Amino acid sequence: MNLAKVSSNGQITVPVEIRRLLGLKSGDKILFFQKQNGEIVVSNASAQAIRRAQAAFSGAAEAMGVSDEDDVQALVDEVRYGKGR
Length: 85
What we know:
Blueprint: H1 16-22, E1 30-34, E2 40-44, H2 45-57, H3 60-63, H4 69-81
């Protein structure tokens, strides 16, 4: 369990153990959201955005026939040089 004190300006210092667990670094944004049961959850907003993007692109590589680095390079060459796959 970790404890943080709220300043008169509403600021807190996130304990180092929690920063490590969330993968937080200077400049990161923290997301606070409330669950149905009223519990408040704290999350690394940057990590949340990455997970949402990963979920959004899930299956895209397979749909495009991309399965390895050679396929990725072929796509890059196609865009750069107009070479077909």
